[in-house]
Design goal:
InterPro entries: Glyas_Bleomycin-R_OHBP_Dase, Glyoxalase_6, VOC_core. With about 120 residues, this protein is α+β, with helices and mostly antiparallel strands. Helix content is about 20%, strand content about 15%. It is globular and about 40 Å long.
Length: about 120
Amino acid sequence: MTVTGIGGLFFRSRDPEARTAWYRENLGIGTGEDEGWQQQAGPTVFAPFASDSDYFARDQPFMLNLRVTDLDALAAKLEGDGIAVERRPEWDDTDYGTFARIHDPEGLPIELWQPPV
């Protein structure tokens, strides 16, 4: 018997409807009980971090990492919609891909990851 993937991510929200709309409008993720999100096959990293790690904000219990196909285009779209996109050269690696960070309306850190081709 083995786990075959992540079946869902459930988290609390001060305004679930507005947050659902933000994910749908900005990242194209269908959320909620009535609509699923069909993902493309690809790698998923499951990695607990030390409680004092500075990889993401210490006041957040987790960071969401999303695989993307065209990070530059998505970053430009998000910035055009007024969403701050952080990119750092030291985050990018030819073996692992390119990365950017954004935050959802309630401050959850989201790492956008374009794996290498």
